[in-house]
Amino acid sequence: MNKRAIGFEVVASEGEARAGVLTTRRGRVETPVFMPVGTLGTVKGTRFEALEAADTDARIILGNTYHLWLRPGAEVISACGGLHRFTGWERALLTDSGGFQVWSLGALRKITEEGTRFRSHVDGRLCFLSPEVSMQVQAALGSEIVMAFDECAPGDAPHDAARESMLLTARWALRSRREFDRLQREEADAGRVGESHLPEGSNLSGAQALFGIAQGAGHSDLRRESLSRTVEIGFDGYAIGGLSVGEEKGVMYRVVEELAPQMPRESPRYLMGVGTPEDLIECVARGVDMFDCVLPTRNGRTGQAFTARGKLNIKNARWARDARPLDERCACQVCRRHSRAYLRHLFTAGEMLGSILLTHHNLAFFLDTMRRVRQAIRSGDFTRFRREFTEGLVSGVA
RNA sequence: GCAGGGGUGGUCGAGUGGUUAAUGGCACCGGGCUGUAAACCCGGCGGGUUCACACCCUACGUAGGUUCGAAUCCUACCCCCUGCA
Fold it and tell me: Is the ipTM of this complex over 0.95?
C-alpha cells in the first residue's frame, strides 16, 4: 500500500550533515552522493565499465533533456526502449530538465510564460521547450528521477528580476507536476520497472520520481518563498538550483546554509551543479544529500586533476620527470598504475588516453571522497573528517 | 665549373629602405573551467633592469659599404637547393 517512486531514509546525522539511503527502481544509492554528469548519454571520457568499477562505483548518473532531445531525439531513444537500454547503463539515472540550458545558452533563447524558444546550438533551427515538453521527453528517456522544468536566474540577479524568475519557476513547477502525473498514468515512462525487478524489500511502485527546484538567486526571502511554493506542490525530492552561476563567493554557502535545514527532512536534498571537492564537503555539512557537477570530467579532460592536496595541472613542465602517481594517497586504477610523467606526456602529445585517465582519476577521487564522507557521518566522525580534508586541500600539491 | 633560386627569432614561414623586437602556423610555458554549445577557451613566448609606466642591450648567413635610417640596396666571402655540363 502507498507505494512510492523512490525511498529515502536518513540513517545517521551529525549537525546538519546526514547519511542516508536513496532507493530507486534501479538500485540503492547511499547518500551523500556525487552523480557524474552524462549530458549526451555518455559521461564524457569514460566507459560505463569504469564507472561501475570498484574504485568509482557510481550508482547514479545524469542525462540531459535538452541535449538528448536535439540529438538523437526522444523518438529514437524511446524506440530503443528508453535511455538505459539505448546507452547500456543499467543503474539509476537522473535527467535534468533543460532548465539550465535556458540559462547557459543565453543569447540563443527567448523566455515566455509558455516556455522557452531556443535556437538549436546544433543546427540553428527553432525549438520550443516547455514544462510539458520537458516532462514528455524525460518520460521517453525513462530516468529514475525527473527534474521539474525551471528557470535559472543569473547568480547576481537583482531582487525584482530574481523574484519574477522564481515565480515563473513556481508556475512551471506546477505545470511540470501535472504533466508528469498525466504521463505516469498513461504509462509513457520508457524506463518503467516491473515489480519482479525492483530492489528486494523496497516497496517501490516502479514509476519515475519527480524533483522540484527552489530558485531565488542570492536573496534569502525569495529562496524561502520558492521552497515553500515548491513543497506546497509536493515532490519526491527537492533541489536547490541557480547556484554556482556567477554569484559572489560565499553566497552559495549562505543560501545552502539557510535553505537546506528548511527542506523536508524525509526527502532527499539535491544541490544542482555543485561543485569543487571543498564545496561538496561544505554543503554536506549544511545538509545536502545529492550533488552533480561537470568539474571532474571536464577538468580531467582538459588536464586538471583533483587530489587530496588540491588541484594539479598535469600539463605543467614540473611533472615531466615525476614518477609518482597523481595523488599518492589515491587507490584508483590510474594512480596504481601510471606516473605523472606518463600522464603529462599523453597530454602534451595530444593523446586521448590522457583525458580518459584523468577523467577516471577525478571521478574516483570525487566518489571516494563521498564514500569517506558517508563513513565519517555514520561513525560520528564527520567534523574531524571535514577539518582534515580541508587542511589537506590547502596544503598544496608537491 | 656555368646559370638560376635561396639563407629571417626553438621551428616552418611572411616581410624587399622608415610605428620592425619583426605577421602567421607549430612547438614551448602558464592560467581558466561548478544542473557540459568545452578532447575546450584565454594569455605569454630574444635577453636584462623595473611593482609598473618605461628604459637598455642583442638580433634577419659572415664581413664591409651606401643612407638621416637597412632584414630589405651595393660588394666580397661562406653555405644550401635546382638545372646544364
Answer: no
Quick one: A125 exposed, middle or buried, by C-beta within 10 A (0-12, 13-18, 19+)?
A: exposed
Q: How far apart are CA A137 and CA A69, in angstroms?
A: 7
What's the Å distance between residue A386 CA and nucleotide B60 C1'?
61
Name the nucleotide with the smallest C1'–CA separation from A102.
B35
Distance CA A243, CA A213 (A): 12
**CA geometry: angle A263, A33, A193, nearest 5 deg:** 90
Residue A321 makes CB contacts below 8 A (sequence gap 6+) with: A341
Judging by DSSP bridges, how do beta strands A109-111 and A126-129 pair with one another?
A: unpaired
* Contact in structure between A251 and A21 (CB atoms under 8 Å): no
Using only the alpha carbons of chain A, give its radius of gyration.
21
Judged by C1' against the alpha carbon of A292, the nearest nucleotide is: B35
Helix axes A159-185, A220-233, angle to 10 degrees: 10
Report the predicted TM-score, pTM, of the whole model to 2 decimal places: 0.94
Beta-carbon contacts of A359 under 8 Å, excluding residues fewer than 6 positions away, are A44, A45, A46, A296, A297, A300, A301
- Give per-residue pLDDT as tens, A239-288: 999 999 888 889 999 999 999 999 999 999 999 999 999 999 999 999 99
Q: Strand B positions with any atom < 7 Å from protein CB?
A: 27-41
A142: left (phi over 0), alpha (psi -120 to 50) or beta: left
* CA–C1' gap, A121 and B37, in angstroms: 6
Closest nucleotide to A279 by C1' from CA: B34
User: How long is the CA A299 to C1' B38 vector, in angstroms?
Assistant: 10
Q: What does the pLDDT look like over A198-231, one tens digit per residue?
A: 998 899 999 999 999 999 999 999 999 999 999 9
